[in-house]
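Justification of resources, computational component.

The compute hours requested in this renewal are based largely on the per-chain cost of generating structure records like the one below. Each record pairs the submitted sequence with a full structure-token output. That output is archived, and it is also reused by downstream analysis tasks.
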Amino acid sequence: MLKQECASLHGCETGEAKITCGYGLPAKYVIHTVGPVAQGGVGDEEKKALRSCYKNSLNAAAKNNARSVAFPCISTGVYGQCLC
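The structure output for this chain reads:
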């Protein structure tokens, strides 16, 4: 059901955040975000996009009255460049 709801969101742009139900997970919600890909270095644009990921995720949590938030790693090197 989570995968089906995600498909209904029609993707997510870098820095945006969208929220779904948690379904069978031990969480009421799952907030989805897309981090920047830093190829060739980390510049101001990538840093700004990463900040947007966290800011928009926290805004989605607050808007839905989430009591707690846990973040996984966002843009931490799968493409060979760490933004941390």
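The two ends are 33 Å apart (CA to CA). The longest helix spans residues 44-63.
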